[in-house]
Amino acid sequence: xxxxxxxxxxxxxxxxxxxxxxxxxxxxxxxxxxxxxxxxxxxxxxxxxxxxxxxxxxxxxxxxxxxxxxxxxxxxxxxxxxxxxxxxxxxxxxxxxxxxx
Length: 101
Known about the structure:
- By secondary structure, this protein is mainly alpha-helical.
- It has one domain (about 5-100).
- Helices cover about 60% and strands about 10% of the residues.
- The protein has 4 helices and 2 strands, in the order ββαααα.
- Strands 1-2 form a two-stranded antiparallel ribbon.
- α3 crosses α4.
- The longest helix has 29 residues, at about 70-100.
- The mean pLDDT is about 90.
- It comes from Qipengyuania xiapuensis.
- It holds the Pfam family Phage_TAC_11.
- InterPro entries: Phage_TAC_11 (IPR021791).
- This is Gene transfer agent family protein.
């Protein structure tokens, strides 16, 4: 399945496979439980204070299929992407949080 950016979805490549990041209500609630307020997360991102672990955690929680890879693999992918490339799917997810559907 490919990501639908109109629906706020993004994708990352893990092991050569495209995995969809879908910011569903459940996924965002789980992310918020771990990371704190999503509004605060957006503020930290806007201020350039978002940590690598927070990006990886948000991506992990938003994976359409968490059984497709481990949480550690998501972290490694974010590290391999670098912050500039990781900011592309991050902006899509955070934009969905702010705008809604």
